[in-house]
């Protein structure tokens, strides 16, 4: 699955999974069958019974049916009774027991036939913090006392109902942190008629003994759910951040590409605009370019301006004698002379085939002829091409002052007429509209 697809669908299936898990946690947990660990009946289990007759007491104990865990405690009248009961060993050495802390309940099915009103159900927990291997009594004694009439026949004891016996706490020096029942290393579980057994026979059969609890403790279960939420949330953020980082990179790449493309297009547009405004051969402005430039110039017409219309003399002859390519070179040569002899603010254009127009700015009427004749002289005095094949070129110029009350066309028309005059009087000369300045 691509990162993009994952990032797009992830929130949906994460939410779905989280909701499902939460539902399972809240509802499903109640319906999971409990975990049951059966201690009895178990024919291999080590079981024994004990009375106090061997130590001078008045209670004798005997098996009624060992297989069924049925035994009898008989009280002899003239001796004191201390204890009599049944033990199930969960450890061979009484040191390594079993951890039953994850269970909730101890369930017992028992048959009691006794006039003794109470019965003790007890456990021993071995902890090296307070127990020693050579003293069986040092294992914590955890007890639950029940009325015999409450055994009917099943007795369910919550582990939280067990208490550490006071006599055990009093007879051992136990630090405070160990005075609560511990179930992490149970070595023994038993049932005991206790002391002061009434005279007569007291029978007890332990039919079944089971531990029961949840497969997963509720606390742990909810921790898992929270864990899944956290892992899911973290995964979500991770995938989202990878996705958006990639997108950002892609956008950046695209932005850079667009930038360079934009620059390319802008350069192309500049080139095209330039090409549209310039004569390809000479690089001078063409008619269109000059007209555009004039638009900006007319906005600032608070200075004297002159128009110089220049035409190469007998250019046809040059073309005919030297060829069209040489003719082109002459045009380029003239363009260079015009550029070299005009100022930065002036406009120089190729106006027709061999015709050029100079729009000279900020020029007094008295200087127009000087400029026109200077250009004419430069053209005539500079020989084109190599010394082996020299070519003398001349040009005629018609020059006028662009009067403030005139349009460009009107002024140009006057320049054209003067150029015509210059051609008429023999070419290679400049004619202006300023009196007494004819060359
Ligand atoms: N090589 C070249 N020749 C051109 C170009 N444009 C126009 N011409 C030529 O310029 C010549 C102009 O000839 P005409 O109009 O008869 O003028 P002219 O020969 O210069 O004679 P006058 O102007 O009367 O002195 C023509 O032969 C055109 O073909 C160009 O771009 N390159």
Going by CATH, what is the homologous superfamily of the largest domain? Answer: Galactose-binding lectin
Runs in which pLDDT lies below 50 for 5 or more consecutive residues are none
Largest beta sheet, briefly? 6 strands, antiparallel
Quickly count the domains: 2
Terminal-residue CA separation:
89 Å
Distinct ligands, ions and cofactors found in the model: guanosine-5'-triphosphate
Structural category is alpha+beta
Query: In the CATH classification, which architecture of the largest domain applies?
Result: Sandwich
Helical segment tally? 8
CATH fold call of the largest domain: Jelly Rolls
Order of helices and strands: HEEEEEEEEEEHEEHHEHHEEHEHE
Helix content: 25-40%
Shape: rod-shaped
Under the CATH scheme, which class of the largest domain? Mainly Beta
What's the overall average pLDDT, rounded?
A: 90
Extended strand count: 17
Structure description:
By secondary structure, the protein is an alpha+beta fold. It has two domains: 35-215, Sandwich (Jelly Rolls), CATH 2.60.120; 287-432, Reverse transcriptase/Diguanylate cyclase domain (Alpha-Beta Plaits, 2-Layer Sandwich). The radius of gyration is 60 Å and the shape is rod-shaped. The strands form three sheets. Strands 1, 3, 4, 6, 9 and 12 form a six-stranded antiparallel beta sheet that branches. A six-stranded antiparallel beta sheet has the order 2-5-11-7-8-10. The protein is 38% helix and 26% strand. Guanosine-5'-triphosphate is lined by residues 281, 311-316, 319, 324, 327-328, 331, 353-354, 423, 427.
Could you write a compact summary of the structure shown?
38% of the residues lie in helices and 26% in strands. The protein is α+β, with helices and mostly antiparallel strands.
């Amino acid at each position: 699955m691509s990162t993009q697809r994952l990032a797009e669908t992830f929130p949906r299936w994460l939410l779905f999974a989280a909701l499902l898990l939460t539902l399972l946690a809240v509802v499903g947990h109640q319906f999971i069958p409990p975990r049951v660990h059966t201690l009895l009946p178990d024919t291999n289990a080590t079981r024994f019974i004990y009375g106090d007759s061997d130590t001078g007491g008045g209670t004798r104990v005997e098996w009624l049916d060992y297989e069924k865990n049925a035994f009898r405690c008989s009280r002899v009248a003239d001796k004191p009774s201390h204890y009599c009961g049944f033990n199930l060993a969960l450890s061979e050495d009484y040191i390594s027991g079993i951890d039953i802390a994850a269970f909730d309940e101890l369930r017992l099915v028992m048959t009691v036939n006794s006039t003794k009103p109470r019965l003790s159900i007890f456990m021993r927990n071995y902890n090296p913090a307070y127990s020693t291997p050579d003293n069986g009594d040092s294992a914590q004694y955890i007890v639950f006392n029940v009325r015999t009439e409450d055994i009917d026949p099943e007795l369910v004891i919550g582990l939280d109902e067990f208490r550490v016996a006071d006599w055990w706490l009093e007879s051992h020096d136990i630090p405070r942190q160990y005075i609560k029942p511990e179930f992490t290393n149970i070595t023994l579980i038993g049932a005991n008629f206790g002391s002061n057994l009434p005279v007569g026979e007291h029978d007890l059969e332990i039919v079944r003994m089971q531990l029961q609890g949840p497969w997963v403790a509720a606390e742990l279960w909810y921790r898992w759910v929270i864990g899944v939420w956290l892992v899911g949330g973290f995964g979500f953020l991770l995938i989202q951040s990878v996705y958006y980082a990639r997108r950002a990179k892609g956008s950046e790449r695209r932005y850079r590409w667009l930038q360079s493309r934009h620059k390319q297009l802008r350069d192309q547009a500049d080139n095209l605009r330039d090409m549209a405004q310039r004569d390809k051969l000479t690089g001078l402005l063409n008619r269109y370019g000059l007209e555009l430039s004039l638009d900006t110039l007319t906005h600032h017409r608070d200075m004297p301006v002159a128009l110089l219309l220049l035409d190469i003399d007998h250019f046809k002859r040059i073309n005919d004698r030297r060829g069209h390519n040489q003719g082109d070179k002459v045009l380029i040569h003239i363009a260079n002379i015009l550029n070299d002899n005009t100022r930065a603010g002036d406009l120089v254009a190729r106006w027709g085939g061999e015709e050029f127009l100079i729009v000279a700015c900020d020029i007094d009427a008295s200087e127009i002829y000087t400029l026109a004749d200077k250009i004419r002289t430069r053209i005539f005095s500079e020989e084109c091409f190599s010394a082996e094949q020299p070519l003398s070129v001349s040009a005629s110029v018609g020059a006028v002052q662009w009067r403030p009350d005139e349009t460009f066309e009107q002024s140009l028309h006057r320049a054209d007429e003067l150029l015509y005059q210059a051609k008429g009087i023999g070419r290679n000369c400049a004619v202006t509209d300023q009196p007494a300045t004819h060359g």
